[in-house]
Amino acid sequence: MTPRWRNALLGLLALLLAALAVAWFLRNFERRAHEVPLPAYGEPTYNPLFALRESLRKDGIQAESRRKLDLAAMQLQPRDTVLMLDDPRRLDSRQVVALLDWVEFGGHLLLRIPGAREDADGNDDGLLERLGIHHSGASSGCLQWQVAGQEMHYEFCSSQRFTLDDDIRTDARWYDDKDAQTLVYARLRHGLGRVDVLADMDFLRNGRRGMEAEPGLRDIPHQELARLVLAPNYGKGTIHLLYAAEAPSLWKLLLQRGWPVWLPLLLALLAWLWARSQRFGALLPSPREERRSLLEHVRASGEHLHRYGKSPLLYDAVRQTFLARLRRRAPLAAALSGDAQAQAIADHLQWPLARVQNALKLPASQDDTTLRERIRLLIQMRNQL
Questions:
Q1: Which of 73-77, 119-123, 173-177 has the lowest mean pLDDT?
Q2: Between the CA of residue 241 and those of 56, 109, 230, what are the distances in Å?
Q3: Residue 135: beta bridge partners?
Q4: How far is it, in rounded angstroms, from Cα 200 to Cα 84?
Q5: In terms of DSSP bridges, do strands 239-242 and 81-84 run parallel, antiparallel, or are they unpaired?
Q6: Residue 265's pLDDT is what?
Q7: pLDDT for 319-366, tens place per residue?
Q8: Which of 213, 232, 280, 340 has the most other CB atoms within 10 Å of its CB?
Q9: 62 within 8 A of 239, measured Cβ to Cβ
Q10: For strand 108-112 and strand 81-84, is the pairing parallel, antiparallel, or unpaired?
Q11: Exposure of 28 by Cβ count < 10 A (0-12 exposed, 13-18 middle, 19+ buried)?
């Protein structure tokens, strides 16, 4: 078989294998679109009434969100609506009086029955007490809520219940399915205004997706129920949504969300402290470092001076050392100079005069032999004094 035919067969075989692989892939796999819900960010993460506010604005209703009740900034008008998601027992007496005065002239107030709290229950000046509302505990019952075109819906399940005083005027009352004496919703008359009291307001919150799915305001029955409770002043004034977000402390946020940063830093700090700490057991002295002896230092200094042409400095240092001892041992000879001093030193040491004169004479800087010889003579003369 020629190389041309062999290459052609190999090419056909490669094309056949590629076609088989493509056919197998197309038969076993197909393209599908999957919708992956992303976590919320921004205002919806801390404002549970964000979806309600945006829905109202799309309907042409003026709606504002606030964290807490601020009467001075809100400037409430008789046709306005105030929805309080927070515990109404947190209001002080001044705020309670101002709210009731505003409702009496046509305002619409929506309240949620909070859970039992010993430090807040029993306050005669509280908003709930002044309206004749009394907390009666939680219940496992539900309220059936039917919307046209939708399946039967159940609301206010396992939420708080309340009762009203006998003389309270109401436009509507919804009772618990299991206990006809307790209410899940009531619309009270107060002057020209209305006060809606609900067992809970979960149907007004932002919906959640994922494993902890909560329909919230996305559910059609919840939307109809929201229109019903907002009906008295709907479209007549501003709707103020008070969500009262309780911001967690900075340390709690750092502990919960900042651990990918602080945990490695903490481990690195502990490792560094461990590395820098003393070893357990008896303390061992540090090993002595190698040191050069004094004689080696002197020898190294002399070699350095000699290498750079400063040999006369070495001779002068030895000569000054000799003269210093001469002043101590033979002060009369040290006081002389010239040949008289050389003669006095020769008589004291009993050396030939020529040898002493030769030792006291500065040698040439390049004559190493003469330098060493005269330094040797000076050292001998110093040792014999």
A1: 119-123
A2: 11, 10, 11
A3: 162
A4: 11
A5: parallel
A6: 92
A7: 888 888 888 888 888 888 888 888 888 888 888 888 888 888 888 777
A8: 232
A9: yes
A10: parallel
A11: exposed
Distance of CA 246 to the CA centre of its chain: 20
**Token pair of 48, please?**
């549970």
The length of the chain is 385
Q: Which two tokens stand for residue 249?
A: 């402390």
**Residue type, position 58, single letter:** K
